[in-house]
Amino acid sequence: MLSIKNLQASVEGKQILNGLNLEIGQGEVHAIMGPNGSGKSTLASVLAGREDYEVTGGSVTFLGQDLLDASPEDRARAGLFLAFQYPVEIPGVSNANFLKTAVNEVRKSRGQEILDSKDFLKLMNEKMKLVEMDKAMTQRSVNEGFSGGEKKRNEIFQMAMLEPRLAVLDETDSGLDIDALRIVSHGVNALRSKERSFVVITHYQRLLDYIVPDFVHVLYKGRIVKSGTRELALELEAKGYDWIKDETTVNA
Amino acid sequence: MPEAMSKNGQHHPAPRPFLEAAETLVRRDEGSMPRVADIRRKALSQFEQSGIPSTRHEEWKYLDLSPLTTTDFRTATPDDIRKLSKADADALRHDGVDACLLLVENGSLNRDASDLKSVPAGVRIGSLAELGTEPAVIDHLFSLADTHTEALVALNTMLSYDPLIILVEANAQVETVLHVAFAAVPESSPLNVCTRLLVVAATGASCTLIESYHTIGEGASTLTNAVTETVVGSGARVHHIKVQHENSLARNISYHKVHMAGDSYQHLTTLTLGGALVRNTLNLRLDGQQINTYLNGLYVLDGDQVVDNHTLVDHAQPNCYSSELYKGIISGRAQGIFNGKIWVRPDAQKTNAYQSNKNILLSDEASMNTKPQLEIYADDVKCSHGATTGQLDEESLFYLRARGIGEATARALLNQAFAADVIAQVEHPGIREALLQVLDRKLSNLQS
Prior knowledge:
heterodimer, A: 41% helix, B: alpha/beta, 23% helix, disordered N terminus
């Protein structure tokens, strides 16, 4: 589904990703862990098409198409979704209006019929339940005045509405208390399917107790330095990242 | 605090054609309305001395009025009406708004095209000849707006052939919207139109007023010099919405003076979408206690538009509240100007006065000059002001695009969101909806 080959990227002239390789198959959940500054969020931003990140080498194909040439909106329309680490507050744009515009632009690009207000409302009411979202939140401006937990729930709600093929969750667990973490994880698990894949970027193994990954990768200095299964996450939790750093230094 | 006009190169000489037109008008009024003729004569001599302010005049620093002196404008007279029909007037109505429409064509009321047969109860509408002897008219018409400090008001006073007068009786609760549509209809040569409007809402009255400006036909450039005088009596409530739709050959220099009495309420919204050069001077005098006033503005500019909003809120008495929010979206090579004065006079203790001006520049060549000026002479007050000018938020734009929303749609959505809170405060739901529609139309067709 997603194939990343020798990806190199820089931001403000600083090289962050140094030849990253990753293959993600349909229906798989991959966790990417790593110490601060290893390039986790850069990877998420490059995949979503953030403009201030410059790709200096390598390739990314998504569902057989070159991803890096596409605009952020075309990536989203093709089925890529990024759950933001810091969701943006947009005063004056209601959540419902925002999502209706997004859902319909995505549908239009796929040649599907545009949802009228009634059908949209129905879809929204159904998906809101997934993340125990209050109806009032849909009438409020996008993320404005939302608590940290509400913002992350809103990200998962948007994901449910847009039904992507691949979702990248960028530190969705950061700033969440245990209840919010449970709700968010429940939403994500409900959306897991044979067709849909996930990249779960996290600093802590705690999230992986709730969203159990098929594969775990360790990102360090802009490269995947170790891959394994869920046990690798537990090992990292127990031993920290230092042994990885040491190992990498020895190998290098 | 007001300063008299001084010279020292701060003015262009008074154009001869304006003076000649005024002399003709003085002769017309001498027999029938000697009092008015005297007022015009006095304004004429003031204008003759003062001329037109240049950019060296502090209040006109960013707005070049020299085209007024170099263009050969003919001043419209009552002979310049009846080109427009009832159908033209109907085209200026807002869908879903129950309104009594008054079409002022080239400065004079077009009676055939106006709803004079369905004037709501409690409201009188008429000309100087019809209502000129009413005490409220004698007290306020030509006297609220100051010809001494404002050269363009003097010009209007000497040249406004047919002032429109709207009197709302004490305690009348007028539901029907009073919509005054000012249309400039040029033919083949540049046309100067002086419009004058007096609105008096007597004690306890309540009404909603739309003041809209239009150009019909594109034959030549127009100069609309508009003066509006409003009296909001004790306990009266006035909602006043001004919308400027003029074309790219139009200049509109307007002056609006509002006198508010104790316990009154006013909600003013100024929406500027059209016009090549627009100046809105809005002066509010809060002359009583427990007055609440809101003055909001929105300007959405593109191409080479230059739009200048100068506001003054004069807190003369204690225990009043004023809230001002002006926002601008500026594209192309357009220029926005905002100057917001708040005066809190020594007696005006317990004043609450707030002002905010926020702007988004959509292009490198767009510009904004903003200047808040608070002069506070009382010590127990709450006043604040703030001004920001920036670009569209790139993070928000990326967020919307990352959800599949195309860049153009995302930009339009963010511009709408920025502008919408000014319109959202308009209390009349039908007018609010109509304004959102005209705003959307402008935002989705912004010229670079």
